Amino acid sequence: MKKGLIGRKVGMTQIFADNGNVIPVTVVELGPCAVVQKKTAENDGYDAVQLGFDDKKIARVNKPMKGHFDKAGVAPKKALREFRFDDISSYNVGDILKADVFAVGDKVDVVGTSKGKGTAGAIKRWNFGRLKESHGTGPVARHAGSLGACSDPSRVFKGKKLAGHLGSERVTVQNLEVAKIDAENNLIAIKGAIPGPKKGIVVVVDSVKA
């Protein structure tokens, strides 16, 4: 990984390419991010850089975290993430990274938390088909149906697709393209959709497949 930043999803819109084609994009407020901590193989067993995004009121920071931010000389941040860059020698604690670390045409992976849908049935959660709606299936047609054999193995196997909690999980969308950058306002337009609701925190990094 060569570069990465923390940002906030603003929402979706569309832009026009030079040939007139419409490109659906997601706008992300990317940075500015401060380098809060630098981890090295000698001290921590691995090389990494901890970035912080979005200032936080001092009254909302507990004492250990206040000391962590004071040591770095940066304002308290709402979001902290670690990045294992290929070379961290050029990063120093207190540095500010902005959206212009990326360029138009770059391929990126976006990591976010998907929208929470609450408790969902098997049809919505796993795209099951409905049961017969004519004879013999009882009062509802949206049940999960048979769950397995009877006397052997006398149980439902782990991992069986059933009704349950849907969404609110870590999702990575790979190999998206940076369509436009507004460096002055730290805004970046990414082609396609990314996980999470508006104002959700996301992480944008170089694509592992590029």
Tell me the total number of β-strands: 12
The rough form would be described as extended
Average pLDDT rating? 92
Order of helices and strands: EEEHEHEEEEHEEEE
Query: Spatial order of the strands in the main sheet?
Result: 1-2-11-10-7-12
Rg over CA atoms, rounded to whole Å, is 23 Å
Backbone structural class: mainly beta
Question: Which range does the strand content fall in?
Answer: 35-45%
The helix content, as a percent range, equals: under 10%
Main beta sheet strand tally, sense and closure: 6 strands, antiparallel, barrel
Low-pLDDT ranges: none
User: For the terminal residues, how far apart are their CA atoms?
Assistant: 11 Å
Question: Would you kindly provide a written description of the structure presented here, covering whatever features stand out?
Answer:
With 210 residues, the chain is mainly β. The chain contains three helices and twelve strands. Strand 1 (4-16) and strand 2 form a beta hairpin. The radius of gyration is 23 Å and the shape is extended.
Keywords:
four-stranded antiparallel beta sheet
SSE topology sketch:
Elements: E1 4-16, E2 22-30, E3 33-39, H1 41-44, E4 48-55, H2 63-72, E5 77-83, E6 96-97, E7 107-113, E8 118-120, H3 122-126, E9 164-166, E10 170-182, E11 187-191, E12 201-206
Antiparallel strand pairs: 1-2, 1-12, 2-11, 3-4, 3-6, 4-5, 7-10, 7-12, 8-9, 10-11
Summarize the structure.
By secondary structure, the chain is mostly beta strands.
